[in-house]
## 1
Amino acid sequence: MEEANILKTTATLIFMALLMAEIASSAPLAREVIQASEILARIERGEPVFVNNLIVEGNLDYSGFEIDLSTTVGVGGSEAALELLGSHQAKRPKRISSPIAITNSEIRGDVNFDKITFIDAVNFAGTSFAGNASFDEARFEDQAAFLYAKFRGDASFKAASFNDRAYFSGDHFGGRADFEGAQFKRLAGFSYAKFSEEADFQGARFGNEACFGGAQFKEDADFGGTEFGGFAYFGRARFSGSSRLGEARFADIANFYSARLADAG
């Protein structure tokens, strides 16, 4: 029964990845342009963001901290305000409460959502990131969907927390992919993802199913110290470089059916 559920989950991830590929390929060539600043303004106003088949021009940078004035009493003058701005204790991580969906689009700039907490669902399925994309130390409280996304630059999710399902199936990582120290509490899907450069999963924690079926690692993949708390599926995965999977910890079944490992040590 458990094996049937695992196979069903894997089949669902593959189907979703293929569906996103079909949607992306059938999208019209002509695309309208929306400025990144407009999207950032919507987020700042707490409005939902729904963008499909558009060109996003500019950098999407919503990183860092916001100032929490309520934590300080008696701020009245400009000198006190300046002191507040320099106080680390008066800062808190930014939170985005509204859903974000930028799908089948092209972002022509860098993306930076470091240290951001996403309360609602995030969807970048079928979207191409022309620059670097960074979600370091971000927290995803709801589902995070990056199905069939293309990262042409570096993609960094270092120390990110995924508290719901995370989908990276069918993704193409053209630059370095950094998931060092990332935490996946529920299903993590990387089926048929392609890693053109180094993929770093060192110290990552998968609390539930981790699906890497059919994934391709063109360069080194670092799974040293990675913890797999649930079923780990690497069927038909291809490792052209080292993997350090021998240093990973598996608490449940690990399936490497027809996988090719150049160096498992």
## 2
Amino acid sequence: MLFLQIILWYTPKMRKIAFLLALLYLPQSIMGNTFLHPLETEKENLQRQNKTLKNKNIELKKTKKKLEKQKKLFAITTAITGIGAIATSTSAIVANKNKKELQKQTNTKKAEIEEKFKTAKSKTTPTEKIDLTNCTLKTKTIFEAIDQDDLNDLQCWLFKKPESIDEKTGYFDQPPLLYSTHHNKIKATQIILEKRPEYANIPHKFKGKTISYPLLNALEKGNKEIVEILLEYKADLYAKNDDGSSVLTSSIDFVQSENQTQILNIFDDLNKKGYNLNAQDLNGKTILTKALEKPRAYTQFFLSL
């Protein structure tokens, strides 16, 4: 365009045309520099904004996907928590059911054992009754009557001085029933229980602590007859001492070698009658764990039960 204007300018007759073309070209040049440039800038701005929007859209999509994943994870966690709660609840229900079932079986077994004792004929003959209205005490203490096997005098003591049943010896503060079971006095034990059957579970208190029971004395001595008498009067094989041990688990602590066979026979008989010889005491021990500290015959016997 500029070349054409120059040619026309130097042609005299065409100068007017060149001048008019120049007038037309000048605004175009001005517009190109002043007006066309902002339009291009606006276009670029729009392109940048469009690109920014695209980037934001991409970020929003990523955020959306992330939120969806978190939502799914939350749903899964909630489901697992719910399942865990259900499982815990179910386990608690099952455990409670098993506990009730075990308690029911224990009560049934206990009732069966008690029924056997109720219906079975006593292995000991009843004590011969004597006229106690005019009896005279021959011994100085009720313990002396027990020591001398003077059953008539023992009955006289219980008749004339019923409070004597709670007297204590100078040896470990033993009352008469504990004294008779400790000294293997079968008939004396029976006479005392006939008078006071609830004493079958009387605890042996020494210095304020329970250290023994009549049944424990009989088991330690290996005296099967006294054990049977006490069980007929509902002596508790699982009664606890203050140290956490039970009659059952303490029964082999002080067994002498000469009593070993007798006590094993007693345990065999208890097992046949349905007593639980695997019962733990408050210390978590059983007669088997105690037997491991004893001669080998004990361990072999309890493992065979």
## 3
Amino acid sequence: MMQYAVTGQPAAPMPDRISAWALYDVISVKNGEQIFLAAVSDAQWITFCDALGYADLQAAPQLATNNDRVRARPTLLPNLRQRLAAHSAAELTPIFEKNGLPFAPILRPEQLFDDPHLNATGGLADITLPDGERAGQTARTTLFPLRMDGPAAGHAPAAPGAGPAHRRTHGGLGYTGDQVLALQAQGGGWPDFSSCTTAHNDTRLTMAAFFTLIRGVLMRLSGTGKKRSASERWGKAGGVAGA
């Protein structure tokens, strides 16, 4: 926006812009893999060439400086892509890591279960599956990459299944015991789990837990611990039941 405001020239799409560096790209390598690789300074270019044995590129006078290499990108980058395609991401990763060069393997979602960074930082957790063929079993999943006042967000307890847990779910939303009983006696209310399929039960229970979390976050951020009754938020029990 600032470029357009000052020069009147709209910014080109990222792939069409002139790169500031000779190598700052996603490279396709062996086995159909991809990896991001970079060499953004003259010192890194020398290190890159030494590490991969590209003595001819390091000695080329037309590639001596970063500006030279940027101007040569139309021919240099295809050359590098061809050379690097002979390696796998697993081969390039330790080379770049050992020499302090920027890199980042590009993984598919199912490959993240073995990702060293996610495992080392607590980015994965086991959850209990509430229903389905694997009900009661655990499955590993990613956590939200959020921190609130320092600690990581963590994960909530497993979503309760249909049954007695309804009372706890309603209570977590602020309903009193009498209001929960009134809703059950009338066969309705929000959330109404009695006439739903299992899939709907899980969805509504999850949504109820989500709204409970959001309410707690907002109360914490606002600095008020005041808890409104369910009738204040949703109307009296009879009105909710008829919704």
## 4
Amino acid sequence: MASPPRRPGFDRDDGAAAFAAINGSCGNWHKLRPSRPRPHRGPRPESAAIDVTLSPNELLRLFDLLPDVVFFIKDTECRYTHVNQTLTQRLNIKRREDILGKSVLELYPPTLAARYILQDRRVLRGEVIENVLEVQLYPNRTTGWCLTLKQPVIDDDGKIVGLIGISRDLGQPDSRHSSFERLRETVAYMQDHFHEPLRVQLLAQKSGVSVAQLERLFKRVFQLTPQQLLTKLRIDAAMRLLQTDASIAYIGQACGFSDQSAFARQFKATVGMAPRDYRAMGRR
């Protein structure tokens, strides 16, 4: 069965379209331009673009309706100026007003806050962070996987005045996609062999498609690239093993990392803390 058609006017399904709606100063109005206007029959109008003006508070009302999406705007000091209801709930805070004006240093454990601050500072220097696979740790110590996008907020003079971001929970695979069954066999192979060196070329060969096709199909069905899914499998396994008494070196090797240093780097980049700190947190 073919996958369901996309919504008219938008050609991106990974959350990036939302960013197109939110470009400008935090206090200014923002514009949303559909990327694919509907076909027009007859004489072409002067402009096919549609301008929709949205204030930050109107955006908040929209994102409040998405329980699987965290939305926020921060100033140049990395302090929250706008947050949606999902972030408020996941921080276990009753009122969003109790978050505004605070930085992550006041709201998250130090190890996690340090990662978020470093990431925010990169964005405030002009970098766009797109589709970063991360583990979110919630107050009740449960974990969840998400894809994070952040970009600078730029005023009319071209000055960076803050940043805006979305973290979207990783959803279930699209089992209705025509390539789901074929890819499921590839994923089963990855689950059985993630502790080994795996190359995308090998996975493409097993799937009977080119590397470019495999990347595209994985994004459609799993919302991830093959490498991101491999990272997820390895980090999931590592988080489970860190609840045992196995050594850090053994866990890294058992999860497919070339050495302990490579394991520690990838774990910290994905989870936000070193493996040793994650283990200690679970034993408190």
